[in-house]
Amino acid sequence: MYNRRNFLKATGALGAGILISRSAFSMGNAFAPNGSISKFGLQLWSVRDDLSKDVKGTLKLLSGYGYKQIEGFEGKQGIFWGMTNKEFKKYMDELGLAFISTHCDINKDFETKAAQAGEIGMKYLICPSLGGPKTIDDFKRAADKFNACGDICKKNGLRFAYHNHGYSFTEIDGKMPQDIMMEGTNKDTVDFEMDIYWVVTAGADPIAWLNKYPGRFKLCHVKDRKKGADPKEHDASADLGSGSIDFKKILKAGSTKGLQYYIVEQELWDNSTPLKSAEADAAYMKKFKM
């Protein structure tokens, strides 16, 4: 079983070393004219244990649930789960799944990963975490690193993005780390993936941030938070629609501010059943309307 905290610690070595009118943006390309989401994805971390037992069988189930897009992560078997990039894409094509993006360790073999991702038409390589940087200078160094990664991605026909956690929405020395990263990165090569759950958990307003930086958040994690959860409780993920986050309001706003990819994720720390949750989340997304 993969341990997310250890994974994020490994990929976060960097941290130690280092209002616009509606017409300005078209509706996110995942939205149908009636306001429903025609294409939505799943972050594979949500079903990591099932994947480790049966990669192809699990992906087939996800396709059957109604997911059209997949976002991966870098586990023990790599980004492509023991297959070559072309083998993995071929199987995804057979299932009608698009491999849009993947979280990965940006400090190891990044140029190789970018070349492999670009070769099969992926859209993004994403930094999943910084491991909890402690100073504003750490975040400035992160922005520099992101710019370098963005340049590498551009050469390979894709883009780079950073996935937030709650810590970047907590002030340090009177400054907001998320501002430092967004203002310090090249908007032509570096985007951001808003994990809505973590923004809310940090006590911030997702819509305010979408309005503040229109066009910079191109992807989002649609992840719900348990009703009544203590604000200090971080691990309070819930099936979509059963929690407290107003996705109708947030995604409607996001669709006018540049959001293009809507990726379901669920953090499951207890003995719940990930595939059942993935199925329930897909059912919610299929019925969703703004």
From TrEMBL:
Residues 1-26 form the signal peptide. Pfam families: AP_endonuc_2 (PF01261), TAT_signal (PF10518). The keyword Signal applies. GO terms for molecular function: isomerase activity. InterPro entries: IolE/XylAMocC-like (IPR050312), TAT_signal (IPR006311), TAT_signal_bac_arc (IPR019546), Xyl_isomerase-like_sf (IPR036237), Xyl_isomerase-like_TIM-brl (IPR013022). Residues 61-287 form the Xylose isomerase-like TIM barrel domain. Gene3D superfamilies: Divalent-metal-dependent TIM barrel enzymes. Keywords: Isomerase, Signal. It comes from the Bacteria. PANTHER family: HYDROXYPYRUVATE ISOMERASE, INOSOSE DEHYDRATASE. This is Sugar phosphate isomerase.
